[in-house]
Request: fold
Amino acid sequence: MSQPISDAFWMPFTANRDFKQAPRMIKSASGMMLTTNDGREVIDATAGLWCVNAGHGRREIADAVHEQLMTLDYSSIFNFAHDLGFAYAERLVEHTPTGLDHVFFANSGSEAVDTALKIAMQYWNARGEGQRKRFISRQKGYHGVNFGGVAMSGLTNNHQPFGQWLMVDHLRHTLDIERNAFSQGLPRYGAEWADELEELLEFHGAETVAAVIIEPIVGAGGVIPPPEGYLAKIRAICDKYSVLLIFDEVITGWGRAGSAFAAVEFGVTPDMITSAKGITNASVPLSAVFVNDEIYQRCMQGAKSAVELYHGYTYSCHPVACAAGMATLDIYEKEGLLTRASEPGGIGEYWQRALHSLADIEQVIDVRNYGLMGAIQLRGDGTKGGQVMQQLWESGVMVRGLGDSIAMSPPLIVEEPHIDLIVKKVRKVLHESL
Ligand SMILES: Cc1ncc(COP(=O)(O)O)c(C=O)c1O
Reply:
């Protein structure tokens, strides 16, 4: 018998009243598939929430977690440590862009973002430029739900109700359906929007700005790959004005974009990267901020107290999460998942072709994709994505509804028949429903 749906559970980022009238309940998961409470099989076209990159129910991770729980379940990470933490940090930075060789651990993407903002401030404190407290982020950006990330958010509903507790200005987003509709991979037009960063830095005074934070590919804002050349321009402007650049790679990290990080994929190296989700295949919460040597060394040397950064979480570097992360890296490396989406003639190209085959549907006004991410943009009033998500759920596909688009990011183990099935069902639902 199923558990009664009650108001004891206040669900996150969910229309609770609607959901509780018509719940979508999942009982188990394996590989690409979810099983609902009523025994239906649903294909997971979102990898959970852009995070189960190696697919569901990986025994290697479960075994590592079990063993770790029985060896060292927990110990303080303030003033004490365990071998696994150091080993895992070394292992992680083998995958980061050259120069980003230091890791600060947290537990969620939101915490990683707020940690990166604080590290940026601490860096400038250590350099004697503590007046740099302002940040620049971008419209349509999502940087989690803690107060730092909410201030950075470029999504109105996440930002407006909670106030502006940090000084931040927002760059224009780069979604331009008029010029770039149906771009395959990176859109051609829009690199010039990066120039607005220069205007904002001049306007506020670059000497007041700590860092720029952007997602290299916007995720929750609607899957928006950067225009060709845009990120390199952002990097060049940050260099010109000596402002730190943070890439929020909570979604784009760990193979989603066809490389370990989008920074590697696009050949643009930020000063910090935030990472979460796929880092442990979403099995145990863990996140990380990868920091370059300049920031790390300055913070070490310029600190005014023995503790260089008054920041950290009870569960930073939790041994069980580290064990899950290690086992996840084993899978990624063994199965070549971090670069699978960018193999020439491979699954990423198949995904691109399949998504763009939906362009002939009248209501589809744009298709965007990169790596194993994609969005279908529908003509609508802002609610189409949610409607289509529900209909697809009923027909056996889990997607994410975002405004008038549906976003998809299947596990990186996806095969051609899965993609065929997803696209076939999307086509059918769009034909029937709109
Ligand atoms: C780019 C980005 N940053 C931060 C976050 C927040 O991560 P979490 O939900 O783990 O706090 C997300 C979550 O989707 C994200 O997409």
